[in-house]
Amino acid sequence: MLRYSVVRILLLIPILLCVTFIVYALMDLAPGTVVDSMITEDMTTEDIELLRAEYNLDKPMIVRYGYYIWDLFHGDLGKSQVTGLSVFDQFFARFPNTLKLSVFSIIVATVIAIPLGIFNAKHAGTIWDNLTTALTMIGLAMPSFWLGLLLLIWFSHNLKIFPAGYDGTWKCFILPVFAGGFSMSASITRQTRSAILDVSRQDFLRTARAKGVPERQVTLRHELGNAWIPIITQIGMMLGITLSGSAVIEAVYSWPGVGYMMVEAIGRRDTNLACGCVILTATMYTLVLLLVDLIYAAVDPRIRSAYARKSKRRVKA
Prior knowledge:
The chain is mainly alpha-helical. It has helices at residues 2-29, 45-54, 61-73, 87-122, 127-141, 144-158, 171-200, 203-210, 215-226, 228-243, 247-252, 258-267, 271-299, 301-316. The longest helix is centred in the first third of the chain and has 36 residues, at 87-122.
């Protein structure tokens, strides 16, 4: 397992290089530069050129990217071209807010989705299954920003129950958590239903029922216990995506997280901050997927035994 984890982390390096190059190139192709907001009417053409030279904008994009990668290989993510603050410090100053939003959203989505998915699988083909399936399809098709705006209009503007943005209180979590968790719960519900239906056709379940095992135990221990792998995969992917920064939800609710910071960096053409956020969020996503692999071994004895056999073979060799 350790060897597998190291290989996964090493494979992240070429992926990050490709992703950072694409982000850097797209930022360069976008109209405007970071110095546009710094230019005043009193500046002469020479002053503007000196300002551009200070940010290496007088050099080709590939040269600037080379400078950035050289610093990155030395462990330096650079400083924001707008604020002058460390990219690393800014990221981890915002990351706790994104972490809270992501964890609460995935908890709400999981608590709703798994019982609903089991219920659908147990009543497959009935009117209740059809109604729930239609609801999950709406959740998958509905854009998060649109749902977020509807919730703002209804509960913040009209009813004035919840704040429209981040204010540090528990109430400010309700709308963004629901907006982010709704689409995730729809996806996890469908995956749970599919996984339970696949397992329900297995012979060992008929054997368990024939031996008189209570239906509740058959469902929770045998069906759900053998259907965890695809469900955990879906939950892990959702958590990784939200930890990478729910840019849409954070932008709608002015949430001081990583996603909103990345949106602001792109709007200001702050290339260093945008690329640094991409690198760190991609690393977080990979670590979450590694954690999911470890959870596989915890919930499925077959995977634990497979890793144990591989370790024994390597020791014998």
